[in-house]
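cache lookup: miss for this entity combination. No prior model stored, computing from scratch. Input as submitted by user K.M.:
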Amino acid sequence: MTRVGFAALVTLAAIAVVAVIGPLFWTIPPEATNPAQSLAGSSAAHPLGTDELGRDVLSRLMHGSRVTLLVGVAAMLAALLIGVVVGAIAGFKGGWADAFLMRFTDGMLAVPAFFFILVVITVLGTGIATLILVIGALSWMPVARVVYGETLRWKTAEFVVAAMSLGVPAPRLLVRHILPQAIPSLVVSATLGVAAAILTESALSYLGLGVQAPFPSWGNMLQRAQIYVFTAPVLALYPGLAITVVVLAFNFLGDGLRDALDPRRRR
Amino acid sequence: MVVGQEVARFLFQRIALGALVIVFASALTFFFVNLAPGGPASVMRFDVTAEQREALIKRMGLDKPVTQRYVEWVAGAVHGDFGTSLLTDEPVAQRISERLPNTLTLAGAALLLSIALGIPIGLIQALRRGSALDHFLSFFSAIGLAVPVFWLGIVLILVFAVSLRLLPSAGVTATGDDTVLERIRHLILPTIVLATTILPTVVRFMRSAAIEVLQEDFIRTAHSKGLAPRVVVTRHALRNALIPVISAIGALVPRLLGGTVVTESVFNLPGMGRLALEAAVGRDYPLVIGLTVVGATIAVATTLLVDIAYTRIDPRVRLA
Amino acid sequence: MRLGLSSFLFRTTAAMLVATLAISACASPTQPGTSAAPSAAQAGPVSGGTVTIPIGADPTLNPWSPNAFVESLFINRVLFDGITKPGKDLAPAPDLAESWTTASDGLSWTFKLRSGVKWSDGTPFTADDVAFTFNDVVLKPDLGAQNRASYAAVKSVTVVDANTVRFDLSRKFAALPSFLAYNAGILPKHVLSAEPLKTTSFNKGTPVSTGPFKVDKYTSGQSVSLVRNESYFGPKPYLDKLVFTVVADPNTQVAQALAGDLQIMILDNKAAVDRMKSAPGLSVVARPLVQYYWLSLNQTDSRFTDVRVRQAFVTAIDRAAIIKSVELGYGSIANSPITPALAAYYDPSLASKYPYDPAKATELLKAAGWTPGANGVLQKDGKPFQFTMDVGQRGVLEPVNALIQQDLKKVGVIVDLNTMEWNSYIQKDVVRRDYTATVNWWTYPSDPDVFPYYHSSAAGKGFNIPGYQDPKLDDLLVQGQSTSDLEARKAVYKQLQQYTSEVLPYLFLWYPQEIDVLSTSLNGVPELGLRDAMHYAGEWWLAKK
């Protein structure tokens, strides 16, 4: 793997560690208000300062990382699940199922996802679970395409044909023999998918439709910080920078993995 | 002619499928939006009494069952009547056609910028693969993709409009001074911001496509024939590399349209993206479905055009 | 030239940091300074000039349309004169009517209308227009006109002669003249008799109006420009043009004001006030509002029917801190529904009631039967004091609820916040009344008649959100409506204020102030909230530089 990819992996691991165990050490609650201390600069007690209600920015950033990463990873997993199922069935069955599923996929790809998410969220409300489901349900299409391609490619391979003639049932064939071949592409899709999901969540939070108060997420921290852009612009800097770094890292990790796992690149 | 028949059948199939997609998308959106809690913004006000609500709901025809309303809408849509906006009592078609040019201009400009910058940059990266320049450009374009659109927008406004006073902060044009120059000035920042949603992807596609092509045998042959490197690159490599890139760009148009929602909000542009947000939030059902139809049509039409162009350029591809 | 990757990375990051620092430096107010006062009138008002005001979205140019939201009322108050308008002391002042009297039985009001008023298309204005506006638009139930509820007591409007109308009432309604000054513009019968509320060429185009300015051009999504109405019945307006520009984002409004593109605006984003104060050419003023924020505890929940619990909550919430951090000090603590802006009626002696005192709050809760249980959470009969507050996403509600949640936590009451998109919030809390507690505000006409929000008949489906029912309060409310004698009303409403501050049907939180930003060359704007000041747009003038 490239140096950059490795650096990205390390960065993400560090962020994940801080997200999980950071709050055990830095115990200021993210929702603890202290109006007397609003918009204070950095100090020993508040290394990143406080927001408009006197809440500790570092704590909110840490708890926000949990929410942001949770939504990103979970949405990607949901997308993976749906995408794998759709792509595998379409590729393996062929014929009618293939035509219907892949045209359905094309159809979903053609509709501007953001529009759709907007409408669905105004219907289902704005819980974290809804957000994960909705972002996942609209990001599975590229995964399906990839799995479809891989399934088509590998279902005529010798070892698969051999297994079929031995009477191995289709599901087992898929799970044990075909899908594992798709893992490198899926891993790459997954890392890029998390990045995209994080960006979508923060854009939705900006519009007021994402993760809601009182849960802090980097996206909704950015939205609140907008109001103070003239008096305390650093409030927007921290979450913005955090989003950028994490999304960058996932992208570089994806690129690095693609280079490392791509059989053609192994020269 | 055999080719003519194939093309016709292909076109027919794709258009039929496209129409199906549009119908499916619009129906799904319609039923979803009507399921939403709440109602049109004019009904959902703190200072509206219960009887006023009932009167308004009746006036807007919202007391009829959802399926009946959908059928009525389709009947009208087939004749070009997309219904009346609940929030302004204007015809939906008029509201959309007011805003559509602004969004198309913005999206078009962003697309052009991405192509004009993305293709050369991707090519340079491929030619200098592995160099520091390559890494730097990758990093830079990855940042473009990673930075939240609205953050970038606000930062640019603060720097260029408030601090430096070079460019306007919002709007499509200066009030009372509607010239082409002003329109262009107002377009600069939003275009840059919107382009960041797809430019990095265009660069990345171009880079991998160019790398693949440059490794092909025929390139080596061209070199060994003694052709000048520049000729090799432009005449042979570039043209072949463009093939997958064009189809990829076509697939990016929906992402571009989605990006207009946030961009138009930040820069206060009266476009379709912002209209979609207002319509969804204000539960303006006829407007929502009208917008979905238009959005899906644009996306489907673009992918179709791109695929047709693709088959023209690449003789290896047959119309399946 | 081979430069290492790390060097490039360093440079890029450094550039980003510099950019952000540059922004911070430009944004932070470095100069201390008082805000410049408007330049003193030299030789008096001069004619000419254009004033630009920002509004949040495309307006609907029809004050009675259900689609006329807050952005519409600024422009509608300029275009459509009402029978009365808010006076500079907030008492109703003549507008289309010159004078008015009430009958001795209090069941009708007669208004003598001005003569010689013309619509902007030349047609004369008459009593028929008033009768049309009320009988055929406002009072027609199936049209769903806005603000209908304010006229529940009006049976019909009768034309006595070409310049006189009479409002016939079903009960005494002393506040009618004040209510007629509140977003109650008169519509032209000769244009709108067919479809009064849905005529697009009127609502989104060039309406026919009587005001000092009339619509010249409506560019959707961008601006509505008005020009001087040469046949206006009052003194000739000074300004040539009044432009309402559509600017949805409050930060963009700030940026435009700083760039000198706006001459007057409400500073929605109060956090930018310091930046505005230090800007040359702009002056910042605080204006009174007829508005108060409240916390409603649903009276169908038995925990909240004990007045000691309500008083305890009000004592446990640090309202001064809320005003300081959320309204940046622009507001004062509220203990009754009558705002200080209604100077004739407001009782200042109540201002210091219920000072912030968590210990006292705990005592009150204890007296009501709530004692600390596990981890300090109050409990009664084994059940912890815990409930959910619905938070509508609008304005300052989110931070306010966060502060209240923390304040109540300190006295052992656990509040879970359920933040909702505004439309869904209205559906749940207002339409279905399915809520336990929620924070919101009331804005109302410049009259202390708060009957619709407090009377027991308004509980359940009306505007009595908590559902508080109290015959003594009902009695005071009706008394206030039944007499037009100012001194008598003052006495009644003083009693009302004392009583409501004791029994707390709503928990009163604070009276906000409005921050207005004006260009220093703009004069003639009265010291009223901008909504009320719009009625005087004909008197605004721009000093020549």
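stored under new cache key. Residues 250 and 269 of chain C are 6 Å apart (CA to CA).
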